[in-house]
Amino acid sequence: MEFIRILASRIRALWSGQRLDDDLDEELRTHIAFATEENLKGGMTEQQARTAALKEFGGMTQTKESYRVVRGLPVLETLANDLRFGLRQLVKAPAFALTAILTLALGIGATTAIFSVVKAVLLAPLPYKDPGRIVAVWTANAAQGGQPLPSSAGDFAIWKQRSGVFEDLAPSYDNEQTLTGQGAPQLLIGYAVSASYLRILGVPPQLGRLYTDQEDSPQGPKVALLSDRLWRTTFHSNPGIVDKSITLDGVAYTVLGVMPRGFDYPTTVEIWTPSAMAASAYDDFNNPYVRILGRLRPGVTLAEAQKTLNDVEALVAAAHPQTDGGNRVVLVPLREQLDGDIRKPLLILMGAVGLVLLIACANTAGLALARNAERQKEIAVRLALGATRRRLLGQFVTESLLLAAIGGAGGVLLALAGNRFLLRLFPTDVANLNIPKVTEIPIDRGVFLFAFAITVLTAFLFGIVPVLKAMRTEAGAAMKDSARGSTATRRSNRSRSAVVVSEVALSLMLLTGAGLVVASFQKVLNADLGFQPDHVLSLQLFLPIDRYPSTDPEKRRQFVEAVEKRLSALPGVKSAGTINFLPMSGFWGTSSFLLRGQAAPKNGQAPEADDRIVTPGYLPTMQIPLLRGRNFTDADRAGGLQVAMINQTMAGHFFAGQDPIGQELNLGSADKPDWWQIVGVTGDVKAFGQDQATHADVYRPFDQRPFPLVAFTLRTKTDPASMVKSAEHAMWSVDPNLPVLKAIPMDLLASQTLAVRRASSALFSAFAVLALVLACIGIYGVMAYAVAQRRQEIGLRMALGARRGDVLRLMMGLGLRLTLSGVVIGLVGAFALTRLMTSLLFEVNAMNPLIFSIAAMVLVAVAMAASYLPSRRAASIEPMQALRTE
What we know:
With 886 residues, the chain is of the alpha+beta class. 50% of the residues lie in helices and 15% in strands. It has 27 helices and 27 strands. Strands 3, 4, 5, 6, 7, 8, 9, 10, 11, 12, 13, 14 and 15 form a 13-stranded mixed beta sheet that branches. Helix 5 packs across helix 15 (445-471) and helix 17 (490-526) packs across helix 25 (804-835). The two termini are 38 Å apart. Mean pLDDT is 80; it is low at 14-25, 58-74 and 481-488.
């Protein structure tokens, strides 16, 4: 505890410049005596040595027999003396200083860099009013996969009326719109939200005002709010845009305001318009499209609200079993909703980098133990001259702080250098990933304070053991040991051995975790997507409802048919096809279904399949295999027999032991059936990413069910990225006013969806390699020191007949014993660590014995390599020369 108290006092002194009078006589006498001895070694006379020492440590007057201390010497002056002395000690041992500083810089830098990400994503204050009471409200159903999904407007109305746990509850829904009249047409990611939705978030606009409840009605005016990004890029930051008119989907809207920078909830939204839901909409329980946001009443906990809302939903399900049977309500806190799928990987990475910091501390502690053993004579002299142990402790604490401060400064520089790489954890243009949109990771005051805190913590972690070891030194014993050549005691050997064992154990934990993550990433990379993404270009767009209304499906058919013909005719294009929900695009939709003769489930919840609307050219273009039956043809037109294809997963689950060809699916309801005949079975497609489960898929012809969301796909002979412009011009030759939402090669889209896994794998691997290097340095340092300390013993052994091979085996055996001890402890720790990593793994067992074995063997091999050079040096010692060494 004395170490901690002095550490705190030194930091406090540096911070406030306070005075410290305790033990000044002892500490100044110690400084003078030791400096005098150092000066004598430098060739000065006794008088010169004493005068120089007095000059260096001023603030005192000399008498004939002793020194009189001037009381009240500022602590900062004392610290300055200690720092000068500490720097001199580091300069005298450059190998130790450089190794320790680099080790600490790597550990502190990696920890600071990952913390900067955690702070920016998980700890940064949310820009909303009292965000702790804001929750997203979802519906989940076990029969439909159990994932949180939007709710119906009818559910929303009853929950708001009967639950009583919300201060306010608000609906919203997606509302993509086409902006025209501002140059080229733009497809805007829009959101239709109620006025109460904006009040719940509580963020005022930077320009203008929010819309009111009166404006949020079916009879209200057409008004809109712009995002800061849209205002700056399209409207050139024009403050006069407020109250001006813009054209969305061919309709004039008045701009009421511009939202502040960084406000884009719930995703990268560019424009907000009133939800304007009619009263009749709240009687609809069939269409789950409403995304709900709520603010809990003060004092209502999340668990209480969850229970109350599910009690209300049970009554709704009893009244509407066909739509709500089996449903449950899921409340997600706003912070958790925004963090998405990144929280667990970030926390696991923070834990991993914490292990790296511990290894760095252990490594530095081992180096400090070895160096302090060489300073036993210095400690003994200072004790013999009257220095108190408290004074020595203060000096060693200052040296630890100095070393940690230099390492911490280097660590912050490393964190700044690696900051840009960490942005790869957050791709901003992949809709298929539920992660925050992060465009910068600032190294701000909070990060600097964290770096300062871990620097102090590091000074404590690596400094306490060496310092306490030094404080146990007895002056007489140390002088005797010095006379015998500073032979290491058994206790000091145990301390250094414990440091090496801990390094090996922590390194093995990291190495095992990295092995699992890398193996999992390789599995994901090699996973079969179900289609061939190379040489495929995709163009995604929405057909505006003002020009392509659902009441005129023929117009949609004609557009898609015309564009496909032009795309297929482009030079370098092999084939073209169309789908509504492009794989890995983030867009998806489902349809519930029943088989012919199957009664509706008791809870009214029919199974669901992902709804794929395609043209005949889609499967050949994407090279999705047709396993049975036939593909769609141009003969599958509106008004004819309604046909469908299903994927292999759906065929195996719902038609086990049967031939699904010719079977019929009811894609309507029991009351209003909509029958489709199965004509083919396709291969499975990983539509949500390589590491996601395969869903049941139903394919239907675009001509029989025209859809407003369209994704054209082209298989090219050349680089698909080079075909973007020609493909866009081919589409605009049919309709020049249609904007393209995204044009991207499919292999790039597939790669982007792995961004988080790729970055996590790279970081884990880097941490593991760093841990391995640090462990290697630590083992080498301890073994080299052991050889130096046992030089006379080894010389005696060889003089008595020991051969070089015997000495080599002796020292290698020491290294092996330490390594194996660390491996055993590390395996136990790795078993515990990998249980926490399950969410990062894909088709890899967290207890994979092969990876555990390989990690252990790699670590043993590296440790033996680190032990070999010192052991070989020991085996080459000349006996007579070693015995003559003082």
